[in-house]
Automatic annotation (TrEMBL):
Signal peptide: none annotated. Belongs to the sulfatase family. GO terms for molecular function: metal ion binding; sulfuric ester hydrolase activity. InterPro entries: Alkaline_phosphatase_core_sf, ARSB, Sulfatase_CS, Sulfatase_N. Its cofactor is Ca(2+). It comes from the Eukaryota. Gene3D superfamilies: Alkaline Phosphatase, subunit A. This is Uncharacterized protein. SUPFAM superfamilies: Alkaline phosphatase-like.
Amino acid sequence: MNTLLQALILFLVSMLQLCYSKPPNIVFIVADDLGWNDVGWRNEQVLTPNLDKLAREGVILNSSYVQPVCTPSRNAFLTGYFPFHTGLQHFVIFPPQPYGLPLKFTLLPERLRKLGYDTHMVGKWHLGFCKWEYTPTYRGFDTFLGYYNGEEHYFSHDYTYQNKKGFDLRNNTKPLREATGDYSANIYATRAIEILENHNKSKPLFLYLPFQSVHAPLEVPERYKDLYPAVKTQARRTYLAMVSALDEAVGNITDTLKKYGYMDDTLIVFTTDNGGPVNWGANNWPLRGAKVTLWEGGTKASAFVHGPMLKKRGYTNTGL
């Protein structure tokens, strides 16, 4: 799905402009390191009622493939190119590496902005930050709240790499230190809700929501662990709790979409960036492999699309 996603979205926008007074709103949600068997519509032991409802009302994409690690997939989501075309096919961008997604490539938010969209990003970037020109507000996003690196702690928002520790949570370009102690999924849902509450609905909206959840480290408020008392493996229990925290955040956002009348003209796209890491509690059954591998456990994504503009809804698509 990822290499065609930009073309698909732009095609849908152009077609819908012929039918509607304005293009559709687009909410693009990315889960991080979500396993194939870690969603409720596939595994009833996983408590994701909000995602399940969206998936079953829309179209579940059962043959959606992504790259096996973060940076290459995010590259493909925002450029529409396989990562070997951009030079980001090898692995992920680490904190000290002096490069990013090449500036010669036009990103999806830049194209949508030319079509009149307001563009906002909330969450994980992981496409380079060695100079400002590589960062989200220089690549087509009107606003950004999130972090630049591949991972960090969910409450402190810092990350240690090669014995060097840094804080990585920003509001546009400024550190957001007042959010220290708040759980990232809640921070991102709150910002997304603020964007929806304040958006001028005469203009189309592109909201890109690449959540930190459920990437390592395994951290979550205790109340979500209480949802899984029968799970005895600590890593698995915490991981599932993080999935449910993500689901609650998505539910709060979709409740806001409904409250302010967005759902009638909003396309919701949901995907993971790669398969789940089994050593951190994920489950890709019955697929072989995991994150970082080229087997389907690393590259087959839990994904769906939802929106009233889809002519056929409520089914599972098994085609590519």
